[in-house]
Each structure stands twice: as structure tokens, then as C-alpha cells.
Write a structure and sequence with these properties.
The complex is a heterodimer of chains A (288) and B (240). Chain A is an all-alpha fold and 288 residues long. In chain A, strands 1-2 form a two-stranded antiparallel sheet. In chain A, β1 and β2 form a beta hairpin. In chain A, α6 packs across α8. Chain B has 240 residues and is α/β, with parallel strands linked by helices. Chain B has a domain of 162 residues: 3-Layer(aba) Sandwich (Rossmann fold). Helix content of chain B is 35%, strand content 28%. Chain B has ten helices and ten strands. In chain B, strands 6-7-8-3-9-10 form a six-stranded mixed beta sheet, with helices on both faces. A four-stranded antiparallel beta sheet of chain B has the order 2-1-4-5, covered by helices on one side. In chain B, β4 and β5 form a beta hairpin. Classes of the chains: A mainly alpha (288), B alpha/beta (240). Chains A and B meet through α6 and α7 of A and α2 and α3 of B.
């Protein structure tokens, strides 16, 4: 066997894994960046999206067709959550949003556990089950489509924030909401939109993940923890940072899982996290 | 001549502390109105009340005949009043271009934007050279110029400037004021808050003197330069 085949295989696997983490994390970082809210229920939004994708699949609508539907549903869900819930919490002390979104995590997870089976459930007849080989590297079709889909959507979010009028307004609100108000920007509207888009990102990620991954009531926990590490590594509020952090986490997890052992795959991830937080508390691409 | 901006009997309080009491002010179209007074006299509070950032407890604010006392802050700029806040508050991580475009957030007409950008460059030529730089890389004086230019990008009829000379090197102040005069000569009414009383009274047509939340003097700016109270309190002239 070629001496470089294994590292190359792990590199591709790590990057593809990282891209899905990125799509989960950019939603979190957008919400934090615009309104300083750490959405502790983010993983539960992923769980909701995965169950929604499963439900659509049982109705005969595949995950890729279902993706825009799930993303739109999560977008609307995010806007409602902002309007009836987050907006009120923002008027209180800073801890209010921490306890509020954490409470939402408990509520959503509890509801899922109470009403749904705790069994792992996958979509019937997954559309992609082959393997693609390029030289010595083999990638499952499902993983490849997840990674590419996540990359396209992350890039689209970046372009939206960087190059549109509304994206520019979001950056302005993120930086100084009083100055943004004086520009004529309706901060509540922009906050609601950002919360909705953040939820839509994790919604799209959930739909993509169902190509290769089962859903269960506590599926959000594992992904949310990774997303928090990604966001802290890359720099809170930075979309590019989330992408860089996610790729790093994906690589460390895959290489760690191979060279150490699958049970220890998160050790290098948290080690890197500790080192970055100690040396550069604002994260790799964070400001200040 | 009718007043473009007409403030009548305004009371403002923050957390029970009275900031303004029965303040009235008139700004005629096309003039520069200075608002002078010591730190804490209520100058910033008046601008914040006009731009809707704080709610008046009593009194009315009329703009071009309309009562705007309870209009939300983000709608005020759409009405035609721009507020350049204290300490500039430029969007530091955005480019100069993005800052200026954010100033034009309420008017997406490309021709308007292009014309206002040109007007901003003619008031403050250095901004043209800095267009693609992040605002954080500008000097304090350049950031002030950017803040004022950003304020003009919505094409306001009233431009409110809060302490445009604060913290700047003295040699930069004439440049800032030259820009402010250019903006006023193009027809924008300017409401100017300053601690630099001499510079403000020189630039202004009319002026109001605030002390502990009340208007204690108002009139022609040139007359106020010679007023004994102003000379004694702010210009360091005359016996105590």
C-alpha cells in the first residue's frame, strides 16, 4: 500500500467532516455576532431539522429536495423564536439569554424524548450509498455530497453577509447597534433575520446529515458541543473563522480517531481548543 | 421663513436624572445652529431626543411641520434628519466605502448615492484615497471626517453633529469646519453641538447656550461671542 494513501484518505475525510461542522457553526456564529446571543438550543434545532427531514423522507420526499423546505421551516421557526422569546430576553440582563436558550434546549430535547422513540432512525432508501474512488482515496457518495453541499451553503452565507445591503446592515448591527440605528437600520428586524438565517443554516445541515447519519432525540448534543468548540476556535462572530475552525476540528477528529483510537478522537480537538484559547483567547480569526 | 426644526418645551430624563428641562429651539432651513455649553449641560441629550434614541417626557419635536416626537429612531433618518454621534462611532472593521454606503442605507438609488459620494469627497478629499481601507486604520481626524460624510450620505435636510472637534489635534479643526461649512453651503441645515465654543460661534448663524439642562441664552451667534456671560463662562475673557 502507498505510504501516503492513508494520510490522503484521512485528509479528505477530515475536510468533508469539517465542512458539515462549518455549516452548523456558521449559524451559531452569525447569531452571536449580530446580537451577542449564544444559542444553546442550536443543537436542538439540528435535531428538529433531522426529524423534519426524516418525516419528509417517510412521505417520499428525499433529503436533497427536502433541504430547502426544512431550511425555510427552520428560518420561520427562528424568526418566531426571536420575536416571541429572544427579543424579550435581550431587554433583560445579559444572563437572560443564556438561561433562556438553555431552557429551550431542555424543553426541545425533553419534548423529543417524551414524544418520539429513543431509537436511532435513518431515512428509508438513502439515495446515495456508493463509494467514489480517486486513486487510492475512497469517499462515500453521501459524505461527498454532504461536504460539497455544506461548502456551497457556507460560501453563500458568507457572500450574503459580505456583499448585500442587508448583509452590510447585519455587520453594522454586529459592530454598533446604536450607530446602526442612526443609519436608519431597524435593529429588531435585522436581529430577527439573523436568527432566522442562523436557524436555516443548521436546518440545511440537518437535512444534509440525514444522508449518512441517524437521528435520535439527543443527536443535537454531540454536534452542538463541536459547534461551540469550532466557534470558539475560529473566533466568535467570524464566518471565515467558523470555516477554518470547523476544518481544523474535522481533521483533528479524523486523524485522532485513526492514529490514537476512535474513543480518543476528541482529545486532539479539545487539546487544540485549549491551546488556542490560552494563546489567542479571541480565536484564530476573532477580533480584539 | 418657517422653522425646519422646531423643538418646544422638551423634558428628558435618564434613570430619574433630569437631563433637559423645558428646552425650546428653532432651526431655520439653510442655517448653522450651534448648541454650546459645559459638559453635562444637556447638549447630547437634546440630539438624542431629536433622533429618537431617548424619549422625551414632555414637549414636542416638529420637523418640517410634522410631529416626530414619537417616531422610532430608525425612521428619523428616513424623514431627513441625520445624527453624527459623539465619539464618531464609525464601523471600525468595515471599509470607508461600506461606512459611506451604510450612511445611505435608507436610499438605495444608485444616482443619489453617486452624487452624495462626490459631494462627500469634495467636502473631505482624503476619503477618496482611503475608500478601500478599514475605518479602524484611519487617524482620529479622518474618522471624524468619515463620520460626518457618512451622515450626509442619506441626503439629510438636517445634519446634527455632536462634538466634531473633540479629541482632535488643533491643526485638524479648521479642516473639519471647512467641510461642515461646505455641507451647509450646499443647503443642509446643521445643528452643531460643541464644547469648543469659539469655533462653534464663528461657524454658526444662531446659537443656544445650555446650562444644567436649560437654555439660558440664545440669539445671533456673532452677538453671543460678545456677550459678557459667554465671554466669562466659556471664552475665558473678563473678570470672574
Amino acid at each position: 500500500m502507498d505510504a501516503l494513501a492513508t494520510p490522503a484518505q484521512l485528509l479528505v475525510g477530515g475536510l468533508l467532516t469539517g465542512l458539515v461542522f462549518a455549516l452548523v457553526a456558521v449559524g451559531l456564529t452569525l447569531i452571536y455576532g449580530v446580537m451577542d446571543v449564544v444559542n444553546f438550543a442550536h443543537g436542538e434545532y439540528l435535531m428538529l431539522a433531522m426529524y423534519a427531514t426524516l418525516a419528509l423522507a417517510l412521505l417520499g420526499i428525499g433529503p436533497l429536495v427536502g433541504l430547502p423546505l426544512v431550511a425555510i421551516a427552520l428560518f420561520l421557526f427562528g424568526i418566531v423564536v426571536y420575536r416571541v422569546f429572544i427579543r424579550r430576553l435581550l431587554a433583560g440582563p445579559p444572563e437572560a439569554t443564556v438561561f433562556g436558550t438553555f431552557g429551550m434546549l431542555v424543553l426541545l430535547q425533553g419534548l423529543a424524548q417524551a414524544t418520539l422513540t429513543s431509537d436511532y432512525q435513518s431515512i428509508p432508501n438513502p439515495p446515495f450509498h456508493g463509494t467514489i474512488r480517486v486513486g487510492a482515496i475512497a469517499v462515500s457518495q453521501a459524505t461527498l455530497i454532504e461536504g460539497i453541499g455544506a461548502l456551497v451553503l457556507t460560501a453563500a452565507l458568507f457572500a450574503f453577509v459580505e456583499f448585500t445591503e442587508t448583509g452590510r446592515a447585519m455587520r453594522a448591527v454586529a459592530e454598533d447597534r446604536i450607530a446602526a440605528t442612526l443609519m436608519g437600520i431597524d435593529v429588531q428586524r435585522i436581529n430577527g433575520l439573523a436568527f432566522g438565517i442562523g436557524a436555516a443554516c443548521v436546518g440545511a445541515a440537518g437535512a444534509l446529515l440525514m444522508l449518512s447519519y441517524p437521528v435520535y432525540p439527543t443527536v443535537g448534543a454531540a454536534f452542538a458541543l463541536t459547534a461551540f468548540v469550532v466557534v470558539a476556535l475560529g473566533g466568535f462572530g467570524s464566518i471565515q473563522g467558523a470555516l477554518v475552525g470547523a476544518l481544523l476540528v474535522g481533521l483533528l477528529e479524523v486523524f485522532g480517531g485513526f492514529y490514537l483510537s476512535p474513543e480518543l478522537k476528541l482529545v486532539p480537538v479539545y487539546l487544540a481548543y485549549l491551546i488556542v484559547v490560552l494563546l489567542r483567547p479571541q480565536g484564530l480569526l476573532g477580533r480584539r | 421663513m418657517t422653522a425646519l426644526l422646531d423643538v418646544e418645551g422638551l423634558d428628558v430624563a435618564y434613570d430619574g436624572m433630569r437631563a433637559l428641562q423645558d428646552v425650546s429651539l428653532v432651526a431655520e432651513a439653510g442655517t448653522i445652529v450651534a448648541l454650546v455649553g459645559a459638559n453635562g449641560a444637556g447638549k447630547t441629550s437634546l440630539l438624542r431626543a431629536i433622533s429618537g434614541l431617548v424619549r422625551a417626557e414632555r414637549g414636542t419635536i416638529r420637523f418640517d411641520g410634522d410631529d416626530i416626537t414619537r417616531v422610532p429612531a430608525h425612521r428619523i433618518v428616513r424623514r431627513g434628519i441625520a445624527h453624527v454621534p459623539e465619539a464618531r462611532r464609525v464601523f471600525a472593521s468595515a471599509t470607508v466605502r461600506d461606512n459611506l454606503l451604510l450612511g445611505a442605507y435608507v436610499d438605495r438609488d444608485a444616482a443619489h448615492r453617486a452624487a452624495r459620494l462626490e459631494a462627500a469627497f469634495s467636502a473631505f478629499p482624503i476619503l477618496r484615497e482611503r475608500l478601500e481601507q478599514r475605518a479602524s486604520t484611519l487617524s482620529g481626524g479622518e474618522q471624524q471626517m468619515l463620520a460626518i460624510a457618512r451622515g450626509t450620505m442619506s441626503g439629510p435636510r438636517v445634519l446634527m453633529l455632536d462634538e466634531p472637534s473633540l479629541g482632535l489635534a488643533p491643526k485638524l479643526i479648521p479642516q473639519i469646519y471647512a467641510g461642515v461649512r461646505a455641507i451647509a453651503e450646499a443647503g443642509t441645515t446643521v445643528l452643531l453641538v460643541e464644547q469648543n465654543v469659539r469655533e462653534a460661534l464663528r461657524a454658526a448663524d444662531t446659537a443656544y447656550v445650555l446650562q444644567t439642562g436649560r437654555v439660558v441664552l440664545h440669539g445671533n451667534a456673532r452677538d453671543l461671542i460678545g456677550d459678557p456671560l459667554v465671554q466669562q463662562a466659556f471664552l475665558g475673557i473678563g473678570a470672574a
